Amino acid sequence: VSICEDIWVKESPTALSALDNKAQIDLNISASPFYAGKMKVRQAIVSDFAQRNKCTVFFNNLVGGQDELVFDGGGIVVNPSGKIIASARRFEEDLLITEMELSTPAEPLGTREASIPIPAKNPTRAYKSPPLRIEHELSDLEEIYKALVLGLKDYTAKNEFKLVVLGLSGGIDSALTAAIAVDALGADHVVGVTMPSQYTSKETFSDAELVARNLNIKLLTIPIKAVYESYLVSLTDVFGDGSPGIAGENLQARIRGNILMALSNRFGWLVLTTGNKSETAVGYSTLYGDMAGGFGVIKDVPKTLVYKLSEYLNGIRERELIPITTIKRAPTAELRPDQKDEDSLPPYSVLDEILKQYVEEDKAPDEIVEFDQKIVREVIGMVDRNEYKRRQAPPGIKITPKAFGKDRRLPITNKYLNSVLKGST
Q1: Which has fewest Cβ within 10 Å: 108, 215, 232, 384?
Q2: Closest to 48 measured CA to CA, from 16, 87, 6, 78
Q3: Average pLDDT, integer, range 170-181
Q4: Residues 389, 127: Cα–Cα separation, whole Å
Q5: Would you tell me how many other CB atoms lie within 10 Å of the CB of residue 68?
Q6: DSSP for residue 105
């Protein structure tokens, strides 16, 4: 018997013990958390262990959500040649039975552990071995989507929430979050809230309504224009004349956050935030506004992946569950007239690649060579400056090799970074 990473280290005591005692079967009980592509890594590790130790490995993995982590199950049986001969389903509990014929164990060398004699098989037992079963391999998008659904389902159930609520802006992030919530909890347990302001376009408002209809969820409409204007009146003496600027933009987001939290307090609903990893990385979000909530479903999903998952979901449902107008519309927070995300950020295709190399691959600025160094350093500067925001964000489901939070937590106060980002040493 081995536990989790016992088999990940070559020449470990566990591996040497299995080899010394000529073990025919290694039972590995594991709690290996999911990230996209992790299954291939596991298979390679288990296959290598089986071949080096000349034994069959039964890899048994935990399944379920625990805070940020998702455990995806997916037990496998690997023969001494390193071949997978049976596999269980992923992202759900499953029972995989694989019967093996064992030879009489050889005498162990006795240098590490004593072997346990294996009793002879009972010839009178009436039992028919089940056929070997190998489950189909999931695509990258399929496994990520299943992980998001399972993570939300278990977080909600294990923390005893009956319903979830989220702001439906008409944008792609909230639409995807709502779709995941429906698949995780059922449409009767999801409430959408649209909170239009004077800057909300007819297109985004109608898309929010369309998403709610497509998903068959309850939709509340709570306008914020009057509330926002009341705030501005109260702040006139302090703000003075002229446009409220960014303070006014953030004020709108915080009004919306207050409304969602009021509904949570009143009815006991769990508020889902809808920010993605790209926004979380560079601080393109508002503290106590769109960051207000209990759980961030797509917190670790880059914006470019949000689009892919939305198109994947429409494809498997064979209809526009997420409206094509939402997918094609230029991303915008709609906190001022004609606002677009790319007014403040590089194109998401550029931003996400820089973030991947800096955050997940730990590359220094001058190692990210595909893009203009000015853009690279601006993005990295935003990442480092906004650690304080991420520290105050709700937990969210991990789907990449390195998520913000437990995987990557840096000091908020980093004065030395100013000189690093300017190019000096």
Answers
A1: 232
A2: 78
A3: 94
A4: 60
A5: 22
A6: P
For residue 386, what are its two tokens?
């906004």
Residue environment code for 255-293, b if the CB has 16+ CB neighbours within 10 A, otherwise e = bbbebbbebbeeeebbbbbbbbbbbbbbbbbbbebbbbb
Q: Which amino acid is at 415?
A: K
How many angstroms separate the first and last alpha carbons of the chain?
A: 50
State CA 355 to chain mean position distance: 16
Q: State whether residue 374 is helix, strand or coil.
A: helix
pLDDT tens per residue across span 277-318: 999 999 989 999 999 999 999 999 999 999 999 999 999 998
Distance CA 78, CA 76 (A): 6
Tell if the pTM clears 0.85, that is, is over it: yes
Contacts of 416 (CB under 8 A, 6+ apart): none
d(Cα 185, Cα 216) in Å, to the nearest integer?
13
Q: How confident is the model at residue 425 (pLDDT cuts 50, 70, 90)?
A: very low
